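#onboarding

Welcome to the new folks! Below is a worked example of what a typical request in this channel looks like: someone posts a single protein sequence, and someone else replies with the predicted structure as tokens. Don't worry about understanding the tokens yet, we'll cover that in week two.

Example request:
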Amino acid sequence: MDSVRQNKVNSLLQQEMAAVMQGHGRQLLPGGLITVTAVKISPDLGLAKVYLSLFPVKNKQAVLQQVRDMGPRLRGELGHRVGKQLRIVPELNFYIDDSLDKTEEIEKLLKGQ
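Example response:
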């Protein structure tokens, strides 16, 4: 269960990370869309899990690896944006949010019956 502070930091990081990703979206995924769907921060505020939704992409793992390779640069840009609100910019771990894919799959199964 997240504390009030964690929830506030989650929403701040999600908003700011979305702005950072918007600046790099054309470089990472030309002709596609990268959305920051959620951010989960650890209780000590030192580690943030960033969940990304990628559309339309055939090879999501390759794009995810590009994002992970740019991680230190993205963290630096995030630090410039949230430096006044947070003392320490958390370490970023990126994951693919596949909840939309699962929802589509469930809808297809329900329509098929």
